[in-house]
Amino acid sequence: MIFENLSDKLQSALGKLRSKGRLSEKDIDAAMRDIRLSLLEADVNYKVVKDFISTIKERSLGSEVMDSLTPGQQVVKIVNEEMVKLLGEKESKINFSSSTTTVIMMCGLQGAGKTTTVGKLADKFKKQSKRPLLVACDIYRPAAIKQLEVVGQSVGVPVFKIDGETNASLIAEKALKEAKKNGNDVVIIDTAGRLHIDEKLMNELVEIRDKVTPDELLLVLDSMTGQDAVKIAESFNDKLEITGIILTKIDGDARGGAALSIRAVTNKPVKFVATGEKMADLETFYPERMASRILGMGDVLSLIEKAQASFDQTKAQEMEQKIKGQKFTLEDFLDQIEQMQKLGPLDQLLEMIPGANSKQLKNFKVDEKEIIYIKAIIQSMTAKERTDPNIINSSRRKRIAAGSGTSVQRVNRLLKQFQETQKMMKKMGSMGKMMKKRGGGLKLPF
User: Fold this and answer.
1) Alpha carbon of residue 402 to chain centroid
2) 310 shares a domain with 291
3) The pTM is what?
4) Tens digits of per-residue pLDDT, 295-310?
5) Is the same domain home to 138 and 259?
6) Distances (CA, A) of 269 to 121, 202, 237, 287
């Protein structure tokens, strides 16, 4: 879960307040102490924590809380509002040029995931009907250009390179001319990184920036480095005047210190967060939604957007008709599993649902192997068996188990799960018919 430790402790501290009918100053002091410790343990910058707690305490002791019928809920509301401010208040969009090619220059240290993030950005822009061009300006790291080519190939985006060229700013300049000639409306420049910040690295980045004048200069940071990420951001910003930040490995960071500190310290917005290893795992950073997730209030809007982006609308309509006609088969069951897998890890989806707190999710671990077994079992069946599982007798079950590399027990368990799902689908189909007879309409969630 994203920011698991921080989320646990904040939800626990605020839960104590919610349970009280009236609040005293002593209650608020105790809650502020718990919140302060939670933030410091999450590696949030000390000054940021101090200012954050001071503002919350001042507001919590005011009339909007102390005279309220539900003071605990009012404090939670204040914490949420102040966290949204801390994270940046509103979404910061990419500054696309309306008249010419948009140039996005990427920078960051080695190991932050810069080249992969370049590919994720290209994939995102391509889905927005843009025509990106990736530019290989990392002329030092062995196999860096090859890595970018592999990334570009995986998302179907061309890569500009000049073999043997040792002047990165010249490569960037020529790439921009090539993009204009070929109608590429977005150029994403992958620059060299270092294990640490040094003068040579910064001078080269300044030279590239001055040569191509990027519309966006984005810093890629590994969120798991905590306070170091904030210091790195300060250094890059001092030299380059960055326009925004992309936080990577946010799915592996249980603390959250970088995300909560970086805007306040650098005054630069977090524009995207990488939530996984796949090319589609790059989310626009919405401060309000992130604060809501941290405080256990869910993030329904992001969940809906994920579903809309991942689900095949034609298949969804076909599925709706099958459910209405009560013709749900094992083939459809397999299709639904594959559609759900596109949305990402199930535990990450569940944390977007309001009320699904981190303590509940901690015990909920989805075994990805189980899904692999289910797919293998269904794919080992004949077309007739998938359409009519009732014909699957004991000898067929043995054959399916052998073909899928599983056991008869697993096959039996899957068939039982399918029967339960089929019963539920029949009920939904019957409900839809009944609503239609009564002149109403049932919108099925597929």
Assistant:
1) 38
2) no
3) 0.70
4) 877 555 555 555 555 5
5) yes
6) 17, 21, 12, 10
